[in-house]
Each structure stands twice: as structure tokens, then as C-alpha cells.
Amino acid sequence: MELDFQDRELPGGITLRLRREDDAAALAEAYARNRAHLAPWDPTRSEDFYTEEGQRSRIRERLALRALGTAVPLVLVDGDEIAGAIDLSDIVRGAFQSAMVGYWLDRSHTGRGLASAALSAVIDTARDDLGLHRIQAATLLANHASQSVLARAGFERIGVAPSYLQIAGRWQDHVLFQRILHD
Predict the structure, then answer these.
(1) Which segments constitute the N-acetyltransferase domain (predicted)?
(2) Which of 32, 121, 136, 145 could form a disulfide with 8 if both were Cys (CB 3.0 to 4.6 A apart)?
């Protein structure tokens, strides 16, 4: 069950759309450009991650998950550049009807409401098109900017998970959030 997503126009002429294989070069450039900006919030990356072929491989993996109905991989596009990405992932059906969301923005695009606008579009898709009941997110304890984005989008803090993810080379605690999409 391949999951669909309709392109959305975001503030500042940014387009939110499905990731494509031909995004590999632009994604590699965006990750390289934002390497220091994202390093405190990301897993340790191999050098291959910052190459076109490394991104092509990741895109293929994400598109295969989309074809299975377990992910919706999206990018924020500003002209020919990638301005960020947002993924709805780990979609579980059955009694759970839930997914995880994760996102990042190019450092030159922060503070303009783009993360909030993109998250709002993903919430609408998850609820209206995918019929999901709940979306979960996790942030590092010190990632107050991302926590603010989640709070503005109606996510509630549900706890702290010790040693939740290996970020910047070490296991780190995360604040967990959820947004219930249906009453």
C-alpha cells in the first residue's frame, strides 16, 4: 500500500513534497552545508552519508518503506535547494494506528515557521488521508526549538526516555511527545 502525499506550498515559497531519487545530489549538498548545524541532534554519520550516492541509497530505502505503507518521506524544497526534510515513519496499523515524525531544517531557514507549517501538513495527512490515531516524536532534552515546534502543533509531552537514541556518538535521554489525532 504505497502512501501518497499532495504537494503543499509553505511560507516563503517553500514546497513540501515527496522525496524522489533525483533529490540525491541536492540532499547531499544540504546535509554537507548543515553538517555542523545538525551534528548535535543527529546520529554520527559516515562520510558516505554526505555523498550523492549515499543519499541515493537512503532515498531508495525510504521509498521502499513508502511502498510498504510504513513511511512518508518528504523534503522541503526552495528552488533547486533542499531546505529540510520531514519523515512520517514507523507507521503501524491494527489497533495502534500510529507513526513517528522527525524533521530538520537548513540553518538558513530556521525561525520562519517552516517546521511548524510542514508538521501541520504532515498531521493533516496522517489524520485525514492515512487515518492514523496518533503521532509520536522525540527530542533531545536540550532541543528547546524542536520542543516548541511540537507544542505549537498540539503535541503533549508524555515523559522522558533514558538512553533513548544514540545521538552525536552517545546514548542520550529524550523527551517523548504525542499528538492524538482523533477523539
Answers:
(1) 14-182
(2) 121
